[in-house]
Amino acid sequence: MVDQDAVVAAVDEGRSGADVGRQFGITRERVRQILLARGRRLGPVGGGPPRLPPLEDLVIRRGSDECWGWRGNISQAGYATWRHGHTAYRAIYEAERGAIPQGLEIDHLCRNRGCVNPNHLEAVTRSENVRRGWAARRA
Q: Domain 55-138 carries which CATH code?
């Protein structure tokens, strides 16, 4: 019989289900079943996406008036991306300012899509965001 607490602890360390299964002599499916029995989930087959460092570890902080860089992925459109394609600037805005109000989206006041400085982010309507974007392009 396998020590289920040890299996859960190994998964919590960030190891894949396959690696944990090999360590304990069980299948990845059995690891998944142990986690499900405890109301937990294991990532998709293949180990799923790698565990990401905490959001804060990916921010390149500069002065409060400057754009802050992003060490994580940048989308083809130039936006800082976070877990599973979600945008990092939204996650940072919500961490600093709270939930984004229904019907609003985040505008980069600095016009730098890769910036994650919460002082450069504002919740606005879609039409306002588009208007500002067009105005910046014409300037």
A: 3.90.75.20
